[in-house]
């Protein structure tokens, strides 16, 4: 994972997931988790972009 990906995963989790996987179900899950709470969105982004 690059530094840019890590920073985006922390600040804007859906953007980091979209950069890696594009528009799809992974992005939708990331958006929903970020809406439910910032921390679950960050964890999901870090795991998916691993």
UniProtKB/TrEMBL annotation:
KW Signal (keyword) present: no
Domain of life: Bacteria
First and last residue of the signal peptide: none
GO cellular component: membrane
Entries under InterPro entries matching the protein: PMP3
Main location: membrane
Xref: Pfam families: Pmp3 (PF01679)
Location(s), subcellular: Membrane
Keywords: Membrane, Transmembrane, Transmembrane helix
UniProt KW Transmembrane helix keyword: yes
Transmembrane portions of the chain: 28-48
Protein family (similarity comment): Belongs to the UPF0057 (PMP3) family.
Entry protein name: Uncharacterized membrane protein YqaE, homolog of Blt101, UPF0057 family
Organism listed in the record: Algibacter pectinivorans
